[in-house]
Protein backbone atom coordinates (compact mmCIF):
# COMPACT_ATOMS: atom_id res chain seq x y z
CA UNK A 1 0.00 0.00 0.00
CA UNK A 2 1.23 3.52 -0.83
CA UNK A 3 1.22 5.78 2.24
CA UNK A 4 2.85 8.79 0.58
CA UNK A 5 -0.34 10.85 0.51
CA UNK A 6 -2.05 9.46 3.62
CA UNK A 7 -2.97 12.93 4.85
CA UNK A 8 -4.30 14.19 1.53
CA UNK A 9 -7.88 15.30 1.08
CA UNK A 10 -8.20 12.57 -1.58
CA UNK A 11 -7.49 9.78 0.90
CA UNK A 12 -9.74 11.39 3.48
CA UNK A 13 -12.59 11.37 0.99
CA UNK A 14 -11.93 7.74 0.12
CA UNK A 15 -12.06 6.76 3.77
CA UNK A 16 -15.07 8.91 4.62
CA UNK A 17 -16.89 8.04 1.41
CA UNK A 18 -17.49 4.49 2.53
CA UNK A 19 -19.96 5.79 5.14
CA UNK A 20 -21.73 8.54 3.24
CA UNK A 21 -24.51 6.37 1.80
CA UNK A 22 -24.77 3.78 4.50
CA UNK A 23 -24.43 0.05 4.01
CA UNK A 24 -26.13 -1.55 1.01
CA UNK A 25 -26.74 -5.25 0.80
CA UNK A 26 -29.55 -7.70 1.21
CA UNK A 27 -31.81 -5.13 2.87
CA UNK A 28 -31.50 -2.74 -0.07
CA UNK A 29 -32.02 -5.57 -2.53
CA UNK A 30 -35.13 -6.76 -0.73
CA UNK A 31 -36.61 -3.26 -0.66
CA UNK A 32 -36.45 -3.10 -4.46
CA UNK A 33 -38.09 -6.46 -5.09
CA UNK A 34 -41.79 -6.99 -5.73
CA UNK A 35 -43.58 -8.68 -2.79
CA UNK A 36 -43.80 -12.09 -4.44
CA UNK A 37 -39.99 -12.28 -4.71
CA UNK A 38 -39.01 -11.02 -1.26
CA UNK A 39 -38.74 -14.55 0.08
CA UNK A 40 -35.91 -15.16 -2.38
CA UNK A 41 -33.47 -13.01 -0.39
CA UNK A 42 -34.06 -14.70 2.98
CA UNK A 43 -30.92 -16.56 4.08
CA UNK A 44 -30.79 -20.11 2.77
CA UNK A 45 -33.99 -19.85 0.74
CA UNK A 46 -32.96 -18.71 -2.71
CA UNK A 47 -31.45 -21.89 -4.10
CA UNK A 48 -33.66 -24.49 -2.41
CA UNK A 49 -36.43 -24.35 -5.01
CA UNK A 50 -36.80 -24.28 -8.77
CA UNK A 51 -36.67 -20.98 -10.65
CA UNK A 52 -40.16 -19.48 -10.66
CA UNK A 53 -39.88 -16.93 -13.47
CA UNK A 54 -37.84 -14.15 -15.02
CA UNK A 55 -37.61 -11.99 -11.87
CA UNK A 56 -36.48 -14.93 -9.79
CA UNK A 57 -33.92 -15.91 -12.42
CA UNK A 58 -32.56 -12.36 -12.61
CA UNK A 59 -32.25 -12.22 -8.83
CA UNK A 60 -30.20 -15.42 -8.84
CA UNK A 61 -27.97 -14.17 -11.65
CA UNK A 62 -27.43 -10.91 -9.76
CA UNK A 63 -26.41 -12.67 -6.56
CA UNK A 64 -24.05 -15.02 -8.40
CA UNK A 65 -22.51 -11.99 -10.12
CA UNK A 66 -21.90 -10.16 -6.86
CA UNK A 67 -19.91 -13.13 -5.61
CA UNK A 68 -17.51 -13.12 -8.55
CA UNK A 69 -14.07 -11.52 -8.44
CA UNK A 70 -13.86 -8.68 -10.95
CA UNK A 71 -11.22 -6.84 -12.95
CA UNK A 72 -11.65 -3.24 -14.08
CA UNK A 73 -13.75 -3.87 -17.20
CA UNK A 74 -15.85 -6.44 -15.32
CA UNK A 75 -16.53 -3.94 -12.54
CA UNK A 76 -17.65 -1.53 -15.25
CA UNK A 77 -20.07 -3.78 -17.11
CA UNK A 78 -21.59 -5.20 -13.92
CA UNK A 79 -22.12 -1.69 -12.56
CA UNK A 80 -23.72 -0.65 -15.86
CA UNK A 81 -26.10 -3.60 -15.60
CA UNK A 82 -27.19 -2.50 -12.13
CA UNK A 83 -27.62 1.08 -13.35
CA UNK A 84 -29.85 0.08 -16.25
CA UNK A 85 -31.81 -2.28 -14.00
CA UNK A 86 -32.60 0.60 -11.65
CA UNK A 87 -30.60 -1.04 -8.85
CA UNK A 88 -29.17 2.36 -7.96
CA UNK A 89 -27.86 1.46 -4.50
CA UNK A 90 -25.83 -1.37 -5.98
CA UNK A 91 -24.63 0.72 -8.92
CA UNK A 92 -23.42 3.49 -6.59
CA UNK A 93 -21.75 0.93 -4.35
CA UNK A 94 -19.90 -0.41 -7.39
CA UNK A 95 -18.87 3.13 -8.34
CA UNK A 96 -17.58 3.69 -4.82
CA UNK A 97 -15.54 0.50 -5.08
CA UNK A 98 -13.98 1.80 -8.30
CA UNK A 99 -13.06 5.07 -6.57
CA UNK A 100 -11.56 3.30 -3.58
CA UNK A 101 -9.27 1.43 -6.00
CA UNK A 102 -8.45 4.51 -8.09
CA UNK A 103 -4.71 4.84 -8.78
CA UNK A 104 -3.06 7.60 -10.81
CA UNK A 105 -6.49 8.68 -11.99
CA UNK A 106 -7.56 5.23 -13.19
CA UNK A 107 -10.60 3.49 -11.74
CA UNK A 108 -10.76 -0.05 -10.36
CA UNK A 109 -7.03 -0.84 -10.31
CA UNK A 110 -6.36 -4.20 -8.68
CA UNK A 111 -2.75 -4.78 -9.65
CA UNK A 112 -0.48 -2.48 -11.58
CA UNK A 113 -1.79 0.40 -13.67
CA UNK A 114 -4.73 -0.84 -15.73
CA UNK A 115 -5.44 0.04 -19.37
CA UNK A 116 -7.07 3.46 -19.79
CA UNK A 117 -10.03 2.04 -21.67
CA UNK A 118 -10.87 -0.83 -19.32
CA UNK A 119 -10.49 1.42 -16.28
CA UNK A 120 -12.90 3.91 -17.86
CA UNK A 121 -15.68 1.37 -18.32
CA UNK A 122 -17.39 2.31 -15.05
CA UNK A 123 -17.24 6.03 -15.84
CA UNK A 124 -20.92 6.51 -16.68
CA UNK A 125 -21.92 4.94 -13.36
CA UNK A 126 -19.45 7.14 -11.47
CA UNK A 127 -20.99 10.23 -13.10
CA UNK A 128 -24.45 8.97 -12.15
CA UNK A 129 -23.30 8.51 -8.57
CA UNK A 130 -21.91 12.06 -8.54
CA UNK A 131 -25.25 13.49 -9.66
CA UNK A 132 -27.37 11.26 -7.44
CA UNK A 133 -25.44 11.68 -4.19
CA UNK A 134 -23.72 15.05 -4.46
CA UNK A 135 -20.66 13.42 -2.91
CA UNK A 136 -17.57 15.16 -4.39
CA UNK A 137 -15.59 11.92 -4.30
CA UNK A 138 -17.35 10.81 -7.50
CA UNK A 139 -17.04 14.04 -9.48
CA UNK A 140 -13.39 14.41 -8.46
CA UNK A 141 -12.70 10.82 -9.42
CA UNK A 142 -14.37 11.24 -12.82
CA UNK A 143 -12.37 14.40 -13.48
CA UNK A 144 -9.14 12.56 -12.66
CA UNK A 145 -10.03 9.74 -15.05
CA UNK A 146 -10.94 12.20 -17.80
CA UNK A 147 -7.64 14.00 -17.31
CA UNK A 148 -5.76 10.72 -17.86
CA UNK A 149 -7.71 10.17 -21.08
CA UNK A 150 -7.17 13.68 -22.41
CA UNK A 151 -3.49 13.94 -21.58
CA UNK A 152 -2.25 10.45 -22.40
CA UNK A 153 0.48 10.07 -24.98
CA UNK A 154 -0.37 6.38 -25.31
CA UNK A 155 -2.11 6.71 -28.66
CA UNK A 156 -1.55 6.44 -32.38
CA UNK A 157 -0.14 9.25 -34.48
CA UNK A 158 -3.72 10.10 -35.49
CA UNK A 159 -4.88 10.39 -31.87
CA UNK A 160 -6.51 7.00 -31.27
CA UNK A 161 -5.98 5.79 -27.70
CA UNK A 162 -4.60 2.28 -27.38
CA UNK A 163 -6.77 -0.30 -25.69
CA UNK A 164 -3.85 -2.08 -24.07
CA UNK A 165 -1.78 -1.00 -21.10
CA UNK A 166 1.45 0.91 -21.68
CA UNK A 167 3.76 0.17 -23.41
CA UNK A 168 1.78 -2.33 -25.56
CA UNK A 169 0.25 -0.62 -28.57
CA UNK A 170 -2.85 -2.73 -29.11
CA UNK A 171 -6.17 -1.76 -30.70
CA UNK A 172 -8.91 -4.23 -29.75
CA UNK A 173 -12.60 -4.33 -30.62
CA UNK A 174 -13.49 -4.49 -26.88
CA UNK A 175 -12.58 -0.79 -26.66
CA UNK A 176 -15.84 0.41 -28.24
CA UNK A 177 -17.70 -0.53 -25.06
CA UNK A 178 -15.09 0.56 -22.55
CA UNK A 179 -14.21 4.18 -23.31
CA UNK A 180 -16.59 5.97 -25.75
CA UNK A 181 -19.71 5.60 -23.53
CA UNK A 182 -17.90 7.31 -20.63
CA UNK A 183 -16.73 10.12 -22.90
CA UNK A 184 -20.27 10.71 -24.17
CA UNK A 185 -21.69 10.62 -20.63
CA UNK A 186 -19.08 13.24 -19.70
CA UNK A 187 -20.08 15.46 -22.64
CA UNK A 188 -16.91 14.72 -24.62
CA UNK A 189 -18.89 13.89 -27.75
CA UNK A 190 -16.30 14.70 -30.38
CA UNK A 191 -13.56 12.76 -28.65
CA UNK A 192 -15.86 9.73 -28.30
CA UNK A 193 -16.77 9.79 -31.99
CA UNK A 194 -13.14 10.26 -32.99
CA UNK A 195 -12.21 7.11 -31.08
CA UNK A 196 -15.05 5.07 -32.60
CA UNK A 197 -14.00 6.16 -36.09
CA UNK A 198 -10.38 5.30 -35.37
CA UNK A 199 -11.15 1.81 -34.15
CA UNK A 200 -13.36 1.26 -37.15
CA UNK A 201 -10.52 2.29 -39.45
CA UNK A 202 -8.11 -0.21 -37.90
CA UNK A 203 -10.42 -3.18 -37.27
CA UNK A 204 -13.59 -3.06 -39.38
CA UNK A 205 -14.02 -5.02 -42.62
CA UNK A 206 -16.57 -3.38 -44.89
CA UNK A 207 -17.25 -6.47 -47.00
CA UNK A 208 -17.99 -8.76 -44.06
CA UNK A 209 -19.44 -6.04 -41.80
CA UNK A 210 -17.41 -7.34 -38.87
CA UNK A 211 -14.51 -6.27 -36.64
CA UNK A 212 -11.28 -8.19 -36.35
CA UNK A 213 -10.23 -8.56 -32.73
CA UNK A 214 -6.70 -7.14 -32.35
CA UNK A 215 -4.37 -4.79 -34.23
CA UNK A 216 -0.71 -4.52 -33.20
CA UNK A 217 0.31 -0.97 -34.01
CA UNK A 218 3.98 -1.61 -33.31
CA UNK A 219 4.19 -4.29 -35.99
CA UNK A 220 1.48 -2.69 -38.17
CA UNK A 221 -0.41 -5.95 -38.51
CA UNK A 222 -3.25 -7.87 -36.93
CA UNK A 223 -2.33 -9.66 -33.73
CA UNK A 224 -5.62 -11.50 -34.09
CA UNK A 225 -7.58 -11.01 -37.28
CA UNK A 226 -10.36 -13.39 -36.17
CA UNK A 227 -13.93 -12.14 -36.06
CA UNK A 228 -14.21 -12.85 -32.35
CA UNK A 229 -17.90 -12.94 -31.49
CA UNK A 230 -17.73 -11.23 -28.11
CA UNK A 231 -15.44 -8.52 -29.51
CA UNK A 232 -18.11 -7.69 -32.06
CA UNK A 233 -20.68 -7.80 -29.28
CA UNK A 234 -18.70 -5.30 -27.21
CA UNK A 235 -18.67 -2.97 -30.21
CA UNK A 236 -22.40 -3.31 -30.88
CA UNK A 237 -23.40 -2.74 -27.25
CA UNK A 238 -20.93 0.11 -26.74
CA UNK A 239 -22.12 2.02 -29.79
CA UNK A 240 -25.70 1.43 -28.66
CA UNK A 241 -24.91 3.25 -25.42
CA UNK A 242 -23.25 6.09 -27.36
CA UNK A 243 -26.32 6.49 -29.57
CA UNK A 244 -28.51 6.69 -26.49
CA UNK A 245 -26.51 9.61 -25.06
CA UNK A 246 -25.66 11.70 -28.11
CA UNK A 247 -27.65 14.96 -28.03
CA UNK A 248 -30.31 15.71 -30.64
CA UNK A 249 -28.10 18.54 -31.90
CA UNK A 250 -25.79 15.81 -33.24
CA UNK A 251 -28.46 14.10 -35.34
CA UNK A 252 -26.14 13.46 -38.29
CA UNK A 253 -23.47 11.91 -36.11
CA UNK A 254 -26.07 9.79 -34.37
CA UNK A 255 -27.39 8.62 -37.73
CA UNK A 256 -23.90 7.53 -38.74
CA UNK A 257 -23.36 5.46 -35.58
CA UNK A 258 -26.83 3.92 -36.01
CA UNK A 259 -25.70 2.81 -39.46
CA UNK A 260 -22.59 1.27 -37.94
CA UNK A 261 -24.68 -0.71 -35.44
CA UNK A 262 -27.14 -1.86 -38.08
CA UNK A 263 -24.36 -3.02 -40.38
CA UNK A 264 -22.61 -4.84 -37.54
CA UNK A 265 -25.82 -6.59 -36.53
CA UNK A 266 -26.34 -7.75 -40.10
CA UNK A 267 -22.76 -8.97 -40.29
CA UNK A 268 -23.12 -11.00 -37.09
CA UNK A 269 -26.61 -12.35 -37.67
CA UNK A 270 -25.50 -14.12 -40.86
CA UNK A 271 -23.79 -16.55 -38.48
CA UNK A 272 -26.65 -17.09 -36.02
CA UNK A 273 -27.15 -20.81 -35.45
CA UNK A 274 -30.56 -22.46 -35.33
CA UNK A 275 -30.17 -22.84 -31.55
CA UNK A 276 -29.78 -19.08 -31.04
CA UNK A 277 -26.02 -19.18 -30.41
CA UNK A 278 -22.88 -18.22 -32.34
CA UNK A 279 -19.49 -19.81 -32.69
CA UNK A 280 -16.77 -18.13 -30.65
CA UNK A 281 -15.12 -17.01 -33.91
CA UNK A 282 -18.13 -16.15 -36.01
CA UNK A 283 -17.07 -17.63 -39.34
CA UNK A 284 -15.30 -20.67 -37.90
CA UNK A 285 -17.65 -23.57 -37.10
CA UNK A 286 -14.73 -25.46 -35.56
CA UNK A 287 -14.79 -23.04 -32.59
CA UNK A 288 -17.12 -23.64 -29.64
CA UNK A 289 -20.72 -22.38 -29.52
CA UNK A 290 -20.92 -19.37 -27.22
CA UNK A 291 -23.72 -17.58 -25.32
CA UNK A 292 -22.56 -14.07 -24.56
CA UNK A 293 -22.67 -12.66 -28.09
CA UNK A 294 -26.31 -13.73 -28.21
CA UNK A 295 -26.99 -11.72 -25.06
CA UNK A 296 -25.04 -8.71 -26.34
CA UNK A 297 -26.84 -8.60 -29.68
CA UNK A 298 -30.25 -9.18 -28.10
CA UNK A 299 -29.54 -6.22 -25.80
CA UNK A 300 -28.50 -4.13 -28.82
CA UNK A 301 -31.68 -5.03 -30.70
CA UNK A 302 -34.06 -4.38 -27.81
CA UNK A 303 -32.51 -0.98 -27.15
CA UNK A 304 -32.51 -0.08 -30.85
CA UNK A 305 -36.11 -1.11 -31.46
CA UNK A 306 -37.25 0.73 -28.33
CA UNK A 307 -35.47 3.89 -29.50
CA UNK A 308 -37.00 3.58 -32.97
CA UNK A 309 -33.88 3.24 -35.07
CA UNK A 310 -33.95 -0.54 -35.59
CA UNK A 311 -36.76 -2.35 -37.38
CA UNK A 312 -39.03 -4.61 -35.36
CA UNK A 313 -38.10 -7.42 -37.75
CA UNK A 314 -34.87 -7.87 -35.74
CA UNK A 315 -36.92 -9.00 -32.74
CA UNK A 316 -37.37 -12.53 -34.09
CA UNK A 317 -33.63 -13.14 -33.87
CA UNK A 318 -33.42 -11.33 -30.55
CA UNK A 319 -35.98 -13.69 -29.05
CA UNK A 320 -34.11 -16.71 -30.39
CA UNK A 321 -30.92 -15.46 -28.74
CA UNK A 322 -32.69 -14.56 -25.51
CA UNK A 323 -34.29 -17.99 -25.30
CA UNK A 324 -30.91 -19.65 -25.81
CA UNK A 325 -29.34 -17.57 -23.03
CA UNK A 326 -32.16 -18.25 -20.58
CA UNK A 327 -31.73 -21.94 -21.21
CA UNK A 328 -28.13 -21.69 -19.97
CA UNK A 329 -28.91 -20.20 -16.53
CA UNK A 330 -28.70 -22.71 -13.68
CA UNK A 331 -30.49 -22.63 -10.31
CA UNK A 332 -27.50 -20.91 -8.70
CA UNK A 333 -27.73 -18.03 -11.15
CA UNK A 334 -24.69 -18.82 -13.29
CA UNK A 335 -24.91 -18.28 -17.04
CA UNK A 336 -23.18 -21.28 -18.61
CA UNK A 337 -21.19 -21.44 -21.84
CA UNK A 338 -20.26 -17.81 -22.22
CA UNK A 339 -16.75 -17.15 -23.49
CA UNK A 340 -15.16 -17.82 -20.14
CA UNK A 341 -12.55 -17.02 -17.58
CA UNK A 342 -9.65 -16.67 -17.25
CA UNK A 343 -8.40 -16.60 -20.85
CA UNK A 344 -11.68 -16.38 -22.79
CA UNK A 345 -10.80 -19.41 -24.86
CA UNK A 346 -13.46 -21.86 -23.68
CA UNK A 347 -17.16 -22.05 -22.79
CA UNK A 348 -17.39 -21.37 -19.05
CA UNK A 349 -18.51 -18.47 -16.79
CA UNK A 350 -17.58 -14.78 -16.64
CA UNK A 351 -18.82 -11.63 -14.88
CA UNK A 352 -19.42 -10.01 -18.26
CA UNK A 353 -21.64 -12.94 -19.24
CA UNK A 354 -23.61 -12.48 -16.04
CA UNK A 355 -23.88 -8.73 -16.62
CA UNK A 356 -25.09 -9.05 -20.18
CA UNK A 357 -27.77 -11.49 -19.14
CA UNK A 358 -29.08 -8.79 -16.79
CA UNK A 359 -28.68 -6.09 -19.43
CA UNK A 360 -30.50 -8.19 -22.02
CA UNK A 361 -33.43 -8.98 -19.73
CA UNK A 362 -33.69 -5.36 -18.60
CA UNK A 363 -33.71 -4.12 -22.20
CA UNK A 364 -36.36 -6.70 -23.11
CA UNK A 365 -38.54 -5.61 -20.19
CA UNK A 366 -38.07 -1.93 -21.05
CA UNK A 367 -39.12 -2.57 -24.65
CA UNK A 368 -42.14 -4.54 -23.46
CA UNK A 369 -43.16 -1.68 -21.21
CA UNK A 370 -42.91 0.84 -24.02
CA UNK A 371 -45.02 -1.26 -26.36
CA UNK A 372 -47.93 -1.68 -23.93
Description:
Among the domains are: 98 residues, no CATH class; 102 residues. Helix content is 53%, strand content 6%. The N terminus is likely disordered. Helix 4 packs antiparallel against helix 5, helix 14 packs antiparallel against helix 15 and helix 14 packs parallel to helix 16. It is globular. It is mostly helical and 372 residues long. Strand 8 and strand 9 form a beta hairpin. The chain has a three-stranded antiparallel beta sheet, with helices on one face.
Secondary-structure-derived class: mainly alpha
**Global morphology:** globular
What is the terminal-to-terminal distance?
Answer: 54 Å
Mean pLDDT: 90
Residue share in helix: 40-55%
Q: In oligomeric terms, what are we looking at?
A: single chain
Q: In percent terms, what proportion of residues is strand?
A: 5-15%
Strand ordering within the main sheet: 1-4-5
Query: What's the alpha carbon Rg, rounded to whole Å?
Result: 20 Å
Task: Give keywords.
three-stranded antiparallel sheet; single chain; 9 strands; 16 helices
Brief digest:
This protein is mainly alpha-helical and 372 residues long.
Summarize the helices and strands and which ones pair or pack.
Blueprint: H1 9-17, H2 26-31, H3 54-66, H4 72-85, H5 88-100, H6 116-120, H7 123-133, H8 136-151, E1 170-172, H9 175-178, H10 180-185, H11 189-203, E2 204-205, E3 210-211, E4 214-216, E5 221-224, H12 229-245, H13 251-269, E6 278-279, E7 289-290, H14 292-307, H15 315-326, E8 338-339, E9 347-348, H16 351-371
Antiparallel strand pairs: 1-4, 2-3, 4-5, 6-7, 8-9
Helix pairs in contact: 3-16, 4-5, 4-16, 5-7, 7-8, 12-13, 12-14, 14-15, 14-16
Amino acid sequence: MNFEDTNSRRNFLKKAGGLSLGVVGSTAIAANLPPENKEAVNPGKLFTREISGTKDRMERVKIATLGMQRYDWEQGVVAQAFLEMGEFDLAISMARGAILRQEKGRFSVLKGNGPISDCSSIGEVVLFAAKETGDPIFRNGADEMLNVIKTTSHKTTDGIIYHTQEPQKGIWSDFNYMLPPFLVAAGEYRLALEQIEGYRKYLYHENDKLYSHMWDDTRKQFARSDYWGVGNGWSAAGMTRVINRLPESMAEEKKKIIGYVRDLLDGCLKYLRSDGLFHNVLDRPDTFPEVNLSQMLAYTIYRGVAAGYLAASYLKQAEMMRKAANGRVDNLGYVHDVCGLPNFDRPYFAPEGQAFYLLMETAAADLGGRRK
